């Protein structure tokens, strides 16, 4: 049986013919969480193709003689989520300019509007899975650090010296019992430009607690990392390093850096559930489809248009707020996600997406997912996970014992258990109800047994 109190929806179909074999609540609008990445990557596959790449360019305006530029140098950032500071350094070296009399412009016209999606939880914005999805992305717009929490000592936070951020800590080191008694946990306060202050409590630990901070001030981050890259590339600049949002397609190009192809970027999105890569793709689709700066708003409309025009998928009343599924505003039906899966399985333009899905017990987010690690399921499930607060979803393909491939959507929303039940599970007494239901549901499909019935209407 599905978990009590929550909502469950599913649909199961033959991946080759599309024949529906079981359905339950398939028209119910539910939160897709990261299974929404399937929608985004399918739109990307249909509109851009597997070999498409982000292209970051260095351009100039003025007079260039030998390696001296009398004028401005411009770096055209286009939302490449894989771009690193070292790649920027190498790009500047290839451009061949060693002296700039004017300014270096960091151009971000590719994207417009907010760099985070509507419905992203405010208390997640300090961590790297909500890094700003800006046109200028360097090192994932994320900084790693560490929090040392030794017993009977004040906690101490550090970041590498070369990172242009400031982190301070006023954190108590307390036992778990004392933390619970005082309702105390680790919190972070943010202030410009990219300053972080840790407060609250944390448990003692011999090894440092890992920290990952999402950059808050992209312009300051870009200026500081570009200054480093220019220095490393041997480029002297007389002017400043300035933010820019101008059309510069008529400026001559000196060099460019290409990202990995969309095929590999999509592997990062689907296999590793990368929010930054997914939402940058969404904003890029908006830019490409509407020929204007890409935003979350035009990106989601572009996805709807592309799926309808290229694959005949009408998302109808479903609601898209981002490309990653991170927003709590997203709503999709199980039948929407099944339509996406069938295009992946049957359309030659999208077949390659099946090759970049996680595989149960082997890769990505399914490598250690407990519901699919048993011998009956290991290696037989190729699917995208979807998890946010009170949501556990799984959408993809499964191979039955007799060699048939099925497309399936299994959505579970509104999940919660009592504090005592949670305590029992933590003590090894029992299993999470949603996990148990997911495992049994999948095992039924593999064995070609009837799908679990509920007290609500369902068909087989």
UniProtKB/TrEMBL annotation:
Recorded hits in InterPro entries, A to Z, give: Beta-lactam/transpept-like, Peptidase_S13
What UniProt keywords are attached to this protein's entry?
Carboxypeptidase, Hydrolase, Protease
Which parts form a coiled-coil structure per UniProt?
Answer: none
Name one molecular function that GO assigns to this entry.
Answer: serine-type carboxypeptidase activity
GO terms (BP aspect): peptidoglycan metabolic process; proteolysis
Q: Quote the NCBIfam families the UniProt record gives.
A: PBP4
User: Would you tell me the protein name for this molecule?
Assistant: D-alanyl-D-alanine carboxypeptidase/D-alanyl-D-alanine-endopeptidase
Q: Lineage of the source organism?
A: Bacteria, Pseudomonadati, Pseudomonadota, Gammaproteobacteria, Aeromonadales
